[in-house]
Structures are given as structure tokens and as C-alpha cells.
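Deliverable D5.2: sample structural annotation.
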Amino acid sequence: MAKINVSIPQGTRDFDATTVWKRRHIFQIIQAVFEQYGFEPLETPAMENLDTLMGKYGEEGDKLIFKILNNGLDHPSKTDNARIEFEKILSGKNSTGITERALRYDLTIPFARYVAMNHAQLTMPYKRYQIQPVWRADRPQKGRYREFYQCDADIVGSKSLLNEVELAGIYQNVFRKLGVEVNIKINSRKILAALAHTCGNEEHLTDITVAIDKLDKIGIDKVKEELQLRMLSADAIAVIEKYLQTGGTNQEKINALSSLLSDSENKTEGIKELNTLLSYFPKESNLVIDLTLARGLNYYTGIIFEVQAKNVPIGSIGGGGRYDDLTGLFGVSNIPGVGISFGLDRIYDVMESLQLFPADTQKGTAILFFNLGDAESRKALELMQKLREAGHSCELFHDNLKMDKQFKYAEKKNIPYVVIIGQKELAEGVCNVKNLSAGKQETVNSEALHLYKF
């Protein structure tokens, strides 16, 4: 028989028990904080109609959408037509004859679609959280995967900046509970629109934000080259370069914006929103104005967020912002919204590299009953049920093997306690409880075992 090359798709991963427990630790903290802030859960399908997703993430984002082939393409009647349709796909066009659906790229657009479909039944403002996997046809690398989880919280139906304040508070609360030190970077798309206005053409906003969003990856010189390719003038590029080099404290950056940007409604509102948000937090908080922050997705309209872990060279571990007309993409206008997202997989990598997971994160079997015969095993099963009802996790070794093999099994699985019931113990109505880490053993009345302090 030929050797089978067993593998998984590039950019995806298997998770063993230890990893799942650690991921669950992150999930539980995020979910608990979401619910403390009044958000309710929502789940949407793994796939969406292609036209729901396309055109919502900008030019770069559209390239990363995983498209799903239609069913039945192997039917003889469709073979010739399929070849023609595939030619369209290869030329960069879409074809409903080949693909009408795609895996979701993020949770925000599916959420907007849900709100557009159900807004008449929702109580506004509607606050939802969503924890589900998403897929992107990106180049896999450390901290960047093709399948990964997002944890989102969004509020729709309100323009109040108090929502941004609450979302910034969620970021602070979650990362404090996880023990991860972060900077919560903030900017405003209105500031970026004011920058485009200063450069002489607000229609260049998308060109500017897409280029700026690549700054960390390609550097200022390459950003300037890209802006040139997008037909921005030398004077405009000089203004953008000065903007990107603005440093100092939050207040110093705001003062610099007042001088650099020409007067416009976006400038006035953008600066006011940043000042308002910052006024709810101490000056020494971890909210930092980052003028290089652009969030290259077209749907953002106001305050934008990005979370960066300190002391770890990894990309953003959270992000989001205001999107006042996202549902308008689906024919339902005037439903403002704002939301944030947590990048679970990168948070996991950060916590693993900094060894931040608590020692008690790992769950699993706490008590192993040795298998020393049929009658002994029957008694063990009886006692195990009482222990499980008392909240203890336990299992019976699968076979009546030598005790050293059963001890080795417990050691390999890091099971802290073993319970031994032999013929003598069965006759006397007792059992031996051994603490493997302490190396101590006690004899306990079997009927009181569920009261024992493991």
C-alpha cells in the first residue's frame, strides 16, 4: 500500500487538550466581561452569500476571502460551462456559475447583515457579542492564520460616544484579568478624512488609509512610493509624512493636528471625539493616540481602536471602531454602530510566550481509580458517581493491569490523586487515597470518600 501523506491545510491547526483548556480560559474571561457590560450572544453561519462579503473589506480584503465552489459542478451537463466560468475566476472576476458563497472573513459584516434582516424586531441600542471562527486566504506566518477565532462586541442603534468609552473599558478589563499589558491605540477616521482634505482631495481617503495601514509592514519609504503610484502629489505626500512622524503625548499630538490639518468639519469633530474619549480615563491610562492607525477597512467612520501587547513582537491582538452606516450596505440606513474585536489566537500566543496562563488552567482527570478486579471495579464505579456529583473529575483505569502501569498512566496524564481498592480494602469498606505530588497516602472510609478534601 502506498504511503499516505497525512496533513492539515496550511494555516490551520489541531489543538490538544492542554491548548483547548488554555484557549477556554481566554474565552471564558472575554465572555464574562462582555456579559457584565450587558451584551448578549449571537451566532451566524460559517458561510455567507458571496455578494454579502465582497466589496466590504476594501481591495486588499476582497483578495483574502475564501470562496466556496457550488455543489454539482461534476454533473456532465455543467462540465463545459464550468470551464468557461473558471476562466472568469482565473481572470479575477466572480461567477455565480462557479461560486455563490464564501467563508466569513470577519464577524462584523455578518452581524451587519443580521441587523439589516432583523432590525424591526431588535430592541435598540442592540448590544451583541459573538465568538466564532473566521477564515482568510492570507499567507500563514507566526501570529497569522487562515482559520482563527474572533471575539466581537458591537453596539448598534446609538451614536453616543459613551459606547466607545464602554468598549475601551472592556479592553482594559479583559486584558487586566488576563494579565496582559497592552497599549490601546486610538485614532479617528474623521482625522484621516481631514488629512485627505488637507492633501487637496477627500476622494483619496481610501488610497491614504490603505497605504498608511501598511506602514508597520513596509516602512515610510514604501508607503510614499505607494502614494505616488496612487497619483498623490509631492506636496500631499509631504503632508502625510509629517502627519505620520507626529509624536509626543496625547495632548501634544492633538495640538499638532490642530496646526497641521486645514480647517474642516471632519477635523473639528475628529479632535473633539478623541478629546471626549480620553476625558473619561486617567492621563496615565493605556489609551494612546496613534496617528499611524488607519484600520484599512472601508466601513469605519469615526473612532478606531487597535490593541498592541507590550513586550511581545506580534501584530495587533484587538481592533475595531465606529461604522455609522454599515447596515446601509444592505439597504437599511441610519443604524449607527461601533464595535471591537479580540484576536484570540494572537492573545494565546502572547500569553504562552509570557507564561501568563494560571497553573490551574489545565483541567482533566483529578482522581484515577485503579482497576484491581471485577468486584473492586464495580465498587470504584459506585464511588466515582458520588464523587462526580460532588464536582470531582475521575476515571477508572481501563483494564486490570499491573499497578506500575496504572501509576505510569496517572503520571503521564498529570493526575494528582489515585484511589486504590483491593480485595482487603473492599472487605473492610475502605480505600487508599494517594496524593502523587506529595507522595502521601491515607486510608479513607469508602462511604465518606465524596467528603474527602482532594
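Annotation notes: The CA atoms of residues 220 and 241 lie 8 Å apart. Residues 17-36 form the longest helix (20 residues).
The annotation will be released with the project's public dataset once the embargo ends.
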